[in-house]
């Protein structure tokens, strides 16, 4: 996309984590973002004002990290999307459901992309700023948002839902998912896979050894043990491109499980080294892993 050119993109672009690197061919920034789409304008590194290390740090430390909208990173970081189109496929299932539950809905950004919801539609979230954001976004659409600590038991009766969904849950309580699903009900989710963003994590912590968590094979075994029948599992490894240290600080502040307890002061020297490396060698490359899982309650 040439510098200065504007282009309309679908509404889902507003909530894609880390922006989007394809098919627009380079960096972009949001001009406006709404339910029906987003206006983006192409930029190049030459168009961007050169910012010092201290300016980048100050900018990222002052950024709002509430909710789960990553559009602040537009022009600073991109991540490829998994090929299966989770939000669109979830919307199809919501349109056919009678009662739905979205677990750990974050700010409701992905759920809100659906065109319609069943008569009974519920979402849970634990972090208070996200509860507020999700309530504001989803209540006008008829979705009830329940503040829940993301620990069992879920505050719902047995067999209450014929569709349970979740995008990037921090924890997965398979027994509880099976309990609240009706017989024949569907669990449809996109999970974070093993060793996501490990290039970035290991830059700060050094080599990480031991068994990788979130292996989809382990999750399949756990789901089956809870009484779920696996319908589909797909995996993807996607490329992340980070263009400046402001994006790094923003991500480490927001995705807190990557580097628990992260503060700029604690990691200032490594951040400076990363800034110098990006200025000298170009973007920092890392990779995410994701898996799509669909299961049916027996």
Keywords:
8 helices; Rossmann fold; disordered N terminus; 3-stranded antiparallel sheet; alpha/beta; 298 residues
Q: Could you characterize what this model shows?
A:
With 298 residues, the protein is of the alpha/beta class. It has two domains: 113 residues, no CATH class; 161 residues, Rossmann fold. It contains eight helices and eleven strands. The protein has an eight-stranded mixed sheet with strand order 4-10-11-9-8-5-6-7, with helices on both faces. A three-stranded antiparallel sheet has the order 1-3-2, with no helix packed on it. A hairpin with a 2-residue loop joins strand 2 and strand 3. The radius of gyration is 20 Å and the shape is globular. The termini are far apart.
Q: Could you give me the name of the CATH homologous superfamily of the largest domain?
A: Vaccinia Virus protein VP39
CATH architecture of the largest domain: 3-Layer(aba) Sandwich
Text of the CATH class of the largest domain: Alpha Beta
Global outline: globular
Q: How are the strands of the largest sheet arranged?
A: 4-10-11-9-8-5-6-7
Quaternary status: single chain
Give the end-to-end Cα distance, rounded to a whole number of Å: 49 Å
Count the helices. How many? 8
- Helicity, as a percent range: 25-40%
Question: Topology of this protein?
Answer:
Layout: E1 6-9, E2 28-34, E3 37-42, H1 53-61, E4 77-79, H2 86-96, E5 99-102, E6 120-125, H3 128-138, E7 144-147, E8 161-167, H4 174-180, E9 181-192, H5 198-205, H6 216-225, E10 228-242, H7 245-254, H8 268-281, E11 284-297
Helix pairs in contact: 1-7
């Amino acid at each position: 996309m040439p510098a200065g050119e504007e282009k309309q993109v679908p509404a889902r672009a507003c909530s894609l984590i880390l922006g989007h690197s394809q098919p627009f061919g380079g960096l972009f920034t949001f001009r406006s973002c709404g339910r029906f789409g987003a206006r983006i304008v192409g930029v190049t590194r030459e168009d961007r004002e050169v910012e010092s290390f201290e300016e980048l740090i100050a900018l990222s430390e002052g950024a709002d990290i509430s909710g789960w909208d990553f559009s602040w990173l537009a022009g600073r970081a991109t991540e490829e999307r998994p090929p299966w189109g989770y939000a669109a496929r979830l919307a199809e299932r919501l349109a056919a459901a009678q009662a739905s539950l979205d677990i750990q809905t974050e700010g409701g950004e992905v759920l809100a992309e659906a065109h319609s919801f069943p008569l009974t539609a519920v979402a849970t979230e634990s972090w208070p700023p996200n509860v507020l954001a999700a309530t504001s976004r989803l209540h006008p659409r008829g979705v009830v948002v329940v503040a829940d600590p993301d620990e069992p038991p879920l505050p719902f009766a047995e067999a209450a839902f014929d569709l349970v969904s979740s995008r990037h849950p921090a924890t997965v309580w398979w027994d509880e998912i099976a309990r609240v699903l009706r017989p024949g009900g569907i669990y449809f989710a996109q999970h974070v896979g093993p060793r996501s963003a490990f290039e970035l994590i290991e830059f700060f912590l050094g080599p990480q050894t031991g068994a990788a968590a979130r292996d989809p094979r382990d999750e399949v075994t756990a789901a089956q043990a809870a009484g779920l029948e696996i319908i589909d599992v797909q995996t993807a490894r996607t490329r992340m491109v980070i263009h400046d240290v402001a994006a790094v600080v923003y991500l480490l502040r927001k995705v807190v499980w990557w580097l628990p307890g992260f503060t700029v002061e604690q990691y200032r020297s490594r951040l400076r080294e990363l800034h110098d490396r990006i200025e000298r060698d170009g973007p920092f490359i890392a990779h995410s892993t994701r898996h799509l899982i669909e299961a049916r309650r027996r």
